[in-house]
Every structure is written in structure tokens, then in C-alpha cells.
Amino acid sequence: MHQPTRLVVLVSGSGTNLQALLDACAEPSYGARVVAVGADREDIEGLARAERAGIPTFVRQVSDFETREGWDASLTTVVERFEPDLVVSAGFMKLLSTEFLDRFLTLNTHPALCPAFPGMHGPRDALEHGVKVTGATLFVVDAGVDTGPIVAQVPVEVAEDDDVASLHERIKTAERAMLVDAVGRIAREGIAVEGRRVRIGAEGR
């Protein structure tokens, strides 16, 4: 048996995706464990979830640094201490520097089927556009906004009576399941990223 894949999870809010990963990691056969949780602000439920689970936490607030570059460098340094195999951005509301992304394979989710409806309002934009199916995407973070190579996607049908809140809630449920499934498969089977193509199971650990 190989050692569990080491995950550092970055959060900015309630940490529901983090909790889904913590619950999955409690099963040894899942193949991964969360070794640290970081945030860009204090006193959030995501940090409290980690602390209740006995997982080390750290906070790096942009306002505590004179420059954004200083914040980027400090975040990179503290994440590096935990020697992650994979970084998961779970509702982390800050863009990551190219230096960070060159150092760590980082995954993020988006509540739409990329490349459609990038940005902060995926469910609203999908509803306003009148699509019949939207969903969630897991992708490798790059320098763009929701533009990285796609790891996994899950469709969610749009109901006739949906509003933004009801649609987003169903998307979040599907998103959590997709994230847990994909991270577990990556932990057990490996991942290869070649340009825009992502293959899980392409390389063993």
C-alpha cells in the first residue's frame, strides 16, 4: 500500500466541500488525507471544521501584507511546509500566482459546465441564458479564471421553476460528489496533465 495522498485544502467560507473531503478521508481505502487547511480570513466555519477534525490550519490575509506578491510568496511557503501532493481550492476566493501553480498541482470546482459561464455567477448566468442543462466542473487551476484543463464534469438539469438559489443548491450537491470521487481516484490511481488533456489513472504513484 502506498502512503495516502497528502491534501492541502484552501477555504474562504463554510467549508462544505472540505467537510465532504474530510468525511471521505476517514475511510482508509479512499487513499488520501487532509494534512492542512488554509484560509484567507479568520473566524470562518471552514477553519472550525478543520480544527474539530484535529487538522493544522493557517491563515494568510492579503491585508496583512504590503504587496500581493508578498502574500503570494507567504502562501506558497506555508503550503510547501506541509508537502502536499495535491492542493484543493474549496471555495477559496483568491486567485493564485503562477509561482504557486507551478509548484503545486491545484484543483478547483466551478458551478457550471466549463467553458460556459465562467466567473462569479455561473448558476445565475446559466439560468438567464435559458440552458436546459448546466452542472459543475473540476479543473486544474491555471492563470485564467475557470479556464484550466478539465478533470471531471457532472450535468445538472435546470427545472422550469428553478431560481438561482435552488439551482445553485443542486449544483453544489453534485459538485461535492464529483470532487470527492475525482480526488479519491487521483489519490489511488494518479493523474497526468498534458496540455488540455487530463487523464486519471494514467500514472501510478
Low-confidence parts, pLDDT < 50 over ≥5 residues? Answer: none
Largest β sheet strand count, sense and barrel closure: 7 strands, mixed
Give the N-to-C terminal Cα separation.
Answer: 10 Å
Query: How many E strands?
Result: 9
Given helix and strand content, the structural type is alpha/beta
Task: Give a structural overview.
The protein has helices at 16-25, 45-52, 68-81, 98-103, 122-129, 164-189, and strands at residues 5-11, 32-39, 57-59, 86-89, 106-110, 133-140, 150-157, 191-194, 197-200. The longest helix has 26 residues, at 164-189. The termini are close together. Helix content is 35%, strand content 25%. It is of the alpha/beta class. The strands form two sheets. It has a seven-stranded mixed β-sheet. Strands 8-9 form a two-stranded antiparallel ribbon. The chain is built from six helices and nine strands, in the order βαβαβαβαβαββαββ.
Summarize this entry quickly.
This protein has six helices and nine strands; from the N terminus they run βαβαβαβαβαββαββ. The chain has 205 residues and is an alpha/beta fold. A seven-stranded mixed β-sheet has the order 3-2-1-4-5-6-7. The protein has a two-stranded antiparallel sheet with strand order 8-9.
Write the layout of secondary structure elements.
Layout: E1 5-11, H1 16-25, E2 32-39, H2 45-52, E3 57-59, H3 68-81, E4 86-89, H4 98-103, E5 106-110, H5 122-129, E6 133-140, E7 150-157, H6 164-189, E8 191-194, E9 197-200
Helix pairs in contact: 1-6
Give descriptors for this structure.
about 200 residues, alpha/beta, 7-stranded mixed sheet, two-stranded antiparallel sheet
